[in-house]
Amino acid sequence: MPLAVRVNTVQTSPEWCIPEGGCARKGWRISWASWLVGLALLFIVGCHQPFGVYHNVQSGETLSKISSYYDVPVDDLVQVNYLRHPDQLSVGDRIFVPGARKIRRKPVAGAVASNKARSEKKSKAAAGKKKKQNNQRKSSSSTSQKSSTAVAARAAGKKPRFIWPVRGQVLTRFGMVGGKANNGLDIGAAEGTPVKASAKGEVIYVTDNQRGYGKLILIQHPYDYITVYAHNQRNLVREGDSVSQGQTIATVGKTGNASRSHLHFEIRHKRRAVNPKQLLP
Predict the structure, then answer these.
(1) What is the pLDDT of residues 205-249, one digit of tens each?
(2) Which of 171, 259, 263, 268, by CA, is between 20 and 30 Å from 10?
(3) DSSP 8-state code for residue 53
(4) Is residue 26's pLDDT more than 60?
(5) Residues 18, 2: contact at Cβ < 8 Å?
(6) Which residues does 89 contact at the CB level (< 8 Å), separation at least 6?
(7) CA-based nearest residue to 187, from 145, 217, 230
């Protein structure tokens, strides 16, 4: 399950500052060379001034149109805001636009052409990979596991010490499940169960209505790591709060599209989802 969110000027992930979401006060700073996230989903180390704006969606606006206002790639907006259905924006939705300095309602000169060129390039690349994708689907799960292992290996010696945010049965594992990608672990627990911060860090994003995820929290940790806690019943921290490992930050719930009470938990390194089980004790 991808997520969306803001960004910290450390540069990062969802890349973000996320994070597959947005950061208007404190978050991640995304640069075209390497946006660290996410959540972001979108997209990490340190506290910096925000670099970006929140765009409130108005009637008739699409993500493509918003992209043209700021000359920011649609894919970046999707990643940073953890948009599962980017074609289903609603009036009043808040979209974090990394790198923007002010709200815009008109296309940037040349933005439409550049976005079109990016789209055409992406379409050609997708067409060239279409045949390979059928064969890759069978091994996508193992590939995902190996990929996350490689990320964890590169971070060896430079990563926070994580703990389980809640104890319970793992309902959905990391990776491809039933043809769909799950970027974290879904951990079953009774409603109201305390959710603990997996490692010390700073709360960079809190929302009560993240599309698909309901009440969600993002915490930034050293070495470009971010943890995501979603479907919460209650969020007990605010953006800018410093939290210690094991501190209660929320309670388990079933907000968003959850059909049963559980915690959706992700660990992201430089905006990329890592298998939490490889970093948990």
Answers:
(1) 999 988 889 999 999 999 999 999 999 999 999 999 999 999 999
(2) 263
(3) E
(4) no
(5) no
(6) 57, 61, 62, 63, 95
(7) 230
Grade residue 51 by pLDDT with cuts at 50, 70 and 90.
low
Residue with tokens 């719930």: 253
Question: Which pair of tokens denotes residue 117?
Answer: 């060129």
Q: Whole-angstrom Cα distance, residue 183 to residue 206? A: 19
User: Which of 225, 158, 217, 155 lies closest to 10 in space, CA to CA?
Assistant: 225
Residue with tokens 């943890």: 227
Entry pTM: 0.52
Residue 145: count other Cβ atoms within 10 Å of its Cβ: 17
CB atoms within 10 A of CB 244: 10
Cα separation, 206 vs 23, whole angstroms: 10
What is the Cα–Cα distance from 168 to 190, expressed in whole angstroms? Answer: 9
Give the pLDDT of residue 82.
75
Give CA–CA dist 261/231, Å, rounded. Answer: 8
CA distance 149 to 105: 43
Q: Are 238 and 218 in contact (CB under 8 A)?
A: no
DSSP helix/strand/coil, 76: helix
Please tell me the distance from the alpha carbon of residue 240 to that of residue 245, in angstroms, as a whole number. 16
Residue 184's identity, in one-letter code, is G
Residue 114 pLDDT more than 70? no
